[in-house]
Amino acid sequence: MEFLTIVGYEAGDNGPTGNGFETFEAQVNPASISVNYGVGYGNSDDASDGRIIPQRKFSGVKTQTVSFELILDDTGVIPQKKGLKGSIKDQIELFKKTCYYFIGSKHETPYVKIHWNQESLFKYNKQAFYARVDNFDIIYNLFSSDGEPISATINATFGGTMDPKTESSLKDKQSPDLTHVVTVRAGDTLPTLCKKIYGDRQMHHEIARVNNLISFRYIKPGTELIFPPIK
Q: What is the C-alpha to C-alpha distance for residues 165 and 106, in angstroms, rounded to an integer?
């Protein structure tokens, strides 16, 4: 089973570097995940121009947020996951180091990417969900006889964002200036693939020639096509 994992990373690195960046893996996967999308509108309350109702003018897409609950248990009710070390306090501290504590060398809190095997839920462009923590609550549910927490939950909300280096890297991987190898899926057509990669459906004649296709009207699913850089 793949567990939800939060990875702190250095800008442009996409992974832990050992320079103050940590990784937190859930003991139990969240029972539910809330994904919030929003759209911003300017002048939404302005009806001074005589309109019957205010006109909502589009101003931009708001930050996508993802919220979930993480369960931490040291009572024995939940079997300990292999490799999980430390007390409840240690796990909470690891969570804070991963996404919350100020990184002195970077003068900011960490960027993170959140992995889970349910890729359709919140991943960006089939990548991990890139984000920074917005807020989180820690609820201590149970204590031992000596006052140590043995059960807790973390309710966390992460706002989607991406450091400029990583964003540039992902854009470069999609660039029409790079060679792409695409496996055709059912429903794909050469014009639509050209539109997606080059932004121009009319490139299909050239791509058919490059791939020695007799006809571009039907391509068998599973066929690999080469889309070279445009000039």
A: 14
